[in-house]
Amino acid sequence: MLFSSAQGTAVMDLTTAETIGTVSACTVTPTPARVAGLRLRTRGRGHHTLDWKDVRSFGPDAVAVEEAGRIRDEKDIGPGDPAHAAHDPLGKPVLTETGLCKGTVVDVEFDARSGRVVHLLTTEQRIPGGELLGVGGYAVVVTARP
Amino acid sequence: MTVYMRASEIIKKPVVTLAGEAIGQVKDLVFDSSTGSIRCFTLAGRGLLAGPLHRALLWDNVHGLGPDAVMVRADSALEEDDTAARPGDGDRTGGDVLGVALTTCGGRRLGDITDAVVAMGRAPVVAGYEISTAEQRRVLLPVAGPVTVSDERVLVPDETARYEAADLGTFEEAAENLRGSLRRAPKEG
Q1: InterPro entries this protein is in (chain A) (predicted)?
Q2: Which residues from chain A sit within 8 angstroms of residue B17, using beta carbons?
Q3: Domain A3-86 has what CATH class?
Q4: Which helix (H) or strand (E) holds B41?
Q5: CATH class for the domain made up of B4-84
Q6: Are the beta carbons of A135 and B20 separated by less than 8 Å?
Q7: Could you give the angle at the alpha carbon of A84 between the alpha carbons of A80 and A88, nearest 5°?
Q8: Quick one: pLDDT at residue B95?
């Protein structure tokens, strides 16, 4: 599914059946390319992050979490953590490892069951997840196709 | 296909790690006066008001060079300081190829070097020079074969003069033709 269609999806707590927040962004990590975490918009200020491994199921209408305690405040996450907001690929330029810009990331196509990133969609092309080398604060880096 | 760019165009390009973090931007190029190629880059921090970074990036540690960024494997690709950018004790004075005369082995001065032409990609190399001729024309000349460099002149084979290119678009063809002609007529001795 496309990440743009998952934005705004409610995140529900399976123990209380309450809504904790809504999905606002995702973070992506390479080798293999997969969604590492979800950024949530919660009530009140600041952002919270949910690690992908704590997602029980990613349904079409709601994301299920075992318990609300799994949600972490973004302030407690260091930049080295794959779930840190710096690893959000949306809106970042895509650079090949030879320094060529291939457009800006506009969407992420991922498998809702495994979290595997199938494609990165840029303003210019679809880049297979297998070509992803890194997602950082400045750019998304992919291998250079011969 | 090899893509070429002028060395001066590398200035201001961001230096990006394979993890996608920008760790600086290219401030200046340091040429190696003994080989005529580029020895290292000096870097500045990112942003308008950022000062110099005082950490050099050796040419050999560049992972890939492209029109949009200089790629390095990781932050550790940078030197701890910028001593590599300063002329060492063993170096001759000068330390720059710019402004030096490009001369053929036959003794003809082709012009003064104003810029270097770099082949981009995974193994970037200096593939030629931009020179300003006696008639104030700017032309690009590929280099191949034996090249000797001093702080007065860069010596190139006589054939080089016949393969000048007017712009980067025709430079590849000129470089191909020069290499072809040097292969056909191998040097004696």
Answers
A1: PRC-brl_dom (IPR027275), PRC_barrel-like_sf (IPR011033)
A2: 134, 136, 141
A3: mainly beta
A4: strand B38-44
A5: mainly beta
A6: yes
A7: 120
A8: 55
